[in-house]
Amino acid sequence: MSRYLLDKFLYTVDRDPDLVERYREDPAGTVAWWEAEMANTILNCTAAEKSTWLEFTEPERRALRQHDHVALFEMGAHPFLTLTLFIAMFERDHGPLEYQKAYGAAMAHISLPYPDIAT
Amino acid sequence: MADVAAVIASTHHPFYYRASTATGADRPPFADEWVAKIERFRETLTRAEPDVLVMVGSDHFHQLWLDNMPQFLVGKAPFFDANFYNEEREFGLPRMTLRGEEDLAAHLLRDGLDRDFDLAFSNELRIDHSITCPIITLRPQADLPIVPVYTNIFAPPLPQPRRFVALGKAIREMVESWESDKRVAIIGTGHLSLELGGPRQFGEHGPDPEFDRKAVEWIAGGDLEGCLAEVSLESLHSPGNATHGFMDFMLMMGVAGEGQKADHVDTLDLFHTMEAYFTWYPNGAPAGTEHST
Fold it and tell me: Does B276 contact A at CB distance below 8 Å?
């Protein structure tokens, strides 16, 4: 489990307009590129000063590739990050609040306690 | 010594800016009532004639990130730019630049550390909608210098609720011991029950109206004892997965003081969440104030 890395993916994509579009259009390619090039970047260090140990598990890769926000929630990805990014990608294809309501309804089977989001 | 001209606690709803400025078919049906309530709320700050604003809020993974996450942070800089690309994108929030009050920030940091609050600091802080929403609602001319205080209500492990209350009490005392003749308003924003990214999000009301009712009662009556007896890090999961933002209200109850009844209380039941607005005048209400609770 690498909740931190899931959150890092969501965070770094959500804050970059080009990456938001790229992830919307080509999720598998974006996830593969990001894991190879970005996963070990320390955001407040120079490019050469990288980490060496961060990688997704296969279920995490799959959830990101499939834009599966329910699986991401169940894995404990930070719900605010997931929601914000997914609204940015998919709200435009729906009527007012329609996407947000459907997003919640897709998780209707999940009850308290929710998965832990601590990193 | 500085005067605490007003203590203000509020929800921060990022949709207010768009709702209040929308016209014609784009204007939501609840906008007029919302604007009327906000204008009354704004008047409670205007009447206090503040010179400086201490602004308590919480970064939503904008500048502060999990590789280096402070629990409590004071911004000390001459200026604070504000709002981020994803807030423009989702909420239509404008870019802003606010002046900073560095002398008060330095005082809060020194005095806070000496009171055993290990405050982090930032000399280059871009602030987000937890601070700009109350600027937009309460002081839209954005003309006063600020001291931002960020709390972590977002990225567990979080500090305990009692620690938020203790920091609020300390902020009140520290502002009052600032060697200045300025009038300071202390403003903080948080949430009542709220769910984001979970099954209970974007309902007809907030996810837990019963929690909201109790929360408004605690805040309006300054019932810190009752609130602390019921609220824990664990209990806050139940009203909604983003309800830990209520701890910023608890911090503001600490600023206002145990048993202090708010001079202005108002709420608005919106879809998704309940809005709530509170103002205290620690040194007596300014002339022309009607008690509006």
Answer: no
